[in-house]
Design goal:
alpha+beta
């Protein structure tokens, strides 16, 4: 993110994150609308650990959510959090975080239990959803199928999104 000392600092990044989520939803219509939140990924984390992102279902309320009309939880929106420290990983890393959280969103929509241990351990059902969204996950003995990589085919598929995130 670059700034010349004038104008808003976070607005362009949040707008790029919102557009990236909208693009993911265009490719995967089951992924729900979400409020995008950018904040410190170190708050509440153990020393030396960062939270790159999280998905939380029905965290926000909106009276104008057209997508939620007629649903059991009408007017409630999910939250996608992106840890600001993770922005240092670059646009492809941020896209990986968003796709990772989109896999959790799909699990929620499909009522699939994709994690255990209070949401920390990612099981093989998460791996399947992650691959459906175009990311590669590797198995970590502590957190399961969570470490995320964005393969070249997915980077190409989201080239305009990566460019917009880079510019922001």
């Amino acid at each position: 993110m670059s700034t010349n000392g004038q104008g808003p600092i976070s607005t362009p990044m949040v707008a790029a994150l919102e557009q990236a989520w909208a693009t993911i939803r265009q490719h995967h219509p089951e992924v729900p609308q979400a409020v995008i939140v950018l904040g410190a990924g170190s708050i509440g984390s153990k020393a030396g650990q960062l939270r790159l992102g999280h998905f939380a279902a029905m965290r926000w309320h909106s009276d104008t959510s057209s997508e939620s009309e007629g649903r059991e939880n009408s007017g409630q929106l999910a939250e996608v959090f992106v840890g600001g420290e993770g922005l240092r990983r670059g646009a492809v890393g941020v896209l990986g975080t968003l796709l990772h959280e989109a896999a959790h969103a799909l699990a929620d929509v499909r009522k699939i239990k994709d994690t255990s241990r209070q949401g920390r351990y990612h099981n093989t059902r998460f791996k399947t959803l992650a691959e459906e969204l175009g990311i590669e996950v590797t198995k970590d003995p502590r957190i399961g199928w969570s470490p995320t990589a964005v393969p070249a085919s997915t980077r190409e598929h989201y080239a305009a999104t990566v460019a917009a995130l880079t510019e922001a």
